[in-house]
Design brief:
The chain is mostly helical. Helices cover 73% and strands 0% of the residues.
Length: 478
């Protein structure tokens, strides 16, 4: 019976090599977590406006959504993309397929356990995940597995030259466990509260720039040249994007705390280095655009390319908004408001999801030997994601700016008390209206997430047969 089930599973996933089946499984698991995380994120937005109608508080829903989207979807899907490109760019087998499968099982299991812990009130409330300290230890260990597998595979490479994707991939899988280690350090006894907060925002901001956008952009470079048979326009421009996102862009997280009890130099450094976020995103978007010169008409037939390009452009918009709010004059209004909620939500649900589709829509047909189940559905995912994430960003940011101006004006004019129950005295009904519109765009984003999952699962289960790309080693191993 076990052998029959294994054979059926192998047939469903294309019957290719072990690393290809593992990569395809990553895409499917990631799609399931995207739907779950999208639903939790939508509920968290609704709890801000309709607190009495949602049985679970925002304080629990937001970290549940963050955990699911960041690690259940983002990490799992992009690691699947990494396992897809590594053998093709190095000319060698994945260093350990069994270890890759164990890592997928472990991270997926920890995400589910974490959701139960938070949901039943065993969390700590610490952003962005709100999990007890002991949970972070196995998660950090599991996050090191992609780094070990990536380094091991690259070390055994047969290809003498390295494509830029390898730099993006290697950087992302190396930085991710280091980010998590810094977050884990926030649970050390005796650490000041401000140090804990900086640890929190370093993870949320670093995850977006140092992993999500770095790995997503690198994988899309591979998709772009592979799908359209083009040469990359500029290796140098790609490296500018890589180093900008990797070593400076995470400072947009510290910009949220400029007016806290922190050293005075933080505001200047955060404003200056936070500009690396839009610069890195713009470098990658410009490089992809130059690569596409003369081939723009082919995007309509390539949903993977369309999704990736939309993700790169949207990353520039999110980066500009984050960098703008890093300047002290703007931060005086936006700090500790829903402005930053809009940045964080849109970064993952917008560019993150689109760049993930940029690799999964291209890789999955080759892995399982089936065409995309519905090109139209894939296009709908792109449109809904762009409209939904942009709309949510705009109206959450507008609500945050309104809040900031109201608090500042009320405090300066002594028109009302800006603390305790009087914090919302100057907001009137405009804030609620803006939040309600943002929730509406959240529903649009969630519809796009459903379209993504339907495309992924539909391709595996019912896509039309197509040519399968099968890895073959010199020794002829399976």
């Amino acid at each position: 019976m076990a052998q029959t089930q294994t054979a059926q599973t192998r047939a469903l996933l294309g019957g290719g090599t072990g690393e290809d089946r593992v990569a395809a499984t990553h895409f499917m698991v990631g799609a399931a977590f995207l739907v779950l995380g999208g639903a939790l994120a939508l509920l968290s937005l609704m709890s801000l406006r309709f607190a009495d109608l949602i049985p679970v508080s925002y304080g629990r829903l937001e970290p549940m959504a963050n955990l699911t989207l960041m690690f259940g979807f983002g990490v799992v899907t992009l690691v699947g993309g990494i396992y897809y490109v590594l053998p093709r760019l190095t000319g060698t087998r994945l260093w350990s397929t069994d270890l890759a499968g164990s890592g997928l099982l472990g991270i997926s299991g920890l995400v589910v356990v974490g959701l139960l812990l938070i949901g039943f009130g065993f969390g700590t409330g610490r952003q962005p995940l709100g999990l007890p300290w002991w949970f972070h230890v196995p998660m950090m260990l599991l996050l090191t597995l992609p780094m070990i597998i990536t380094i091991g595979t690259i070390a055994n490479r047969e290809e003498p030259r390295s494509f830029v994707t390898l730099w993006f991939v290697l950087g992302g899988v190396t930085w991710l466990p280091l980010l998590y280690l810094a977050y884990l350090a926030g649970d050390l006894p005796g650490l000041s509260s401000i140090a804990v907060e900086y640890s929190n925002v370093f993870l949320s901001a670093g995850y977006v720039t140092m992993f999500l956008l770095t790995v997503g952009s690198g994988l899309f470079y591979y998709t772009l040249v592979k799908e359209l048979d083009l040469s990359l326009a500029s290796r140098q421009l790609a490296m500018i994007g890589f180093w900008s996102l990797g070593f400076a862009a995470a400072w947009w997280g510290a910009a949220q705390l400029i007016f806290g009890p922190a050293p005075s130099w933080v505001s200047g450094v955060a404003a200056a280095l936070g500009l690396a976020f839009p610069i890195g995103a713009l470098a990658n978007a410009a490089n992809a655009s130059l690569t596409l010169e003369g081939s723009w008409g082919e995007i309509g037939d390539q949903p993977a390319v369309g999704a990736g390009m939309a993700g790169l452009y949207l990353a520039v918009a999110v980066g500009l908004a984050a960098a703008l709010a890093g300047f002290r004059s703007v931060a005086a209004v936006t700090s500790l408001t829903s402005f930053w909620e809009g940045i964080e939500y849109s970064a993952i649900a917008g560019p993150g999801a689109l760049l993930a589709a940029g690799v999964s829509f291209a890789a999955l047909p080759r892995l399982v030997g089936r065409q995309l189940a519905s090109v139209q559905r894939a296009r709908s995912f792109i449109r809904l994601t762009v409209v939904g994430s942009v709309g949510t960003l705009i109206f959450l940011a507008a609500a945050g700016i309104l809040s900031g101006y109201s608090w500042t004006g009320g405090s300066n004019a002594a028109a009302y008390i800006d603390a305790a129950e009087g914090w919302g005295a100057g907001l009137d009904n405009t804030f609620d209206t803006l939040l309600l519109i943002a929730i509406g765009f959240g529903f649009v984003t969630f519809a796009g997430q459903l379209a993504y999952a339907a495309t992924i699962f539909g391709t595996v289960t019912s896509g039309k047969a197509a040519t399968q790309e099968v890895l073959v080693t010199i020794e002829g191993e399976e």
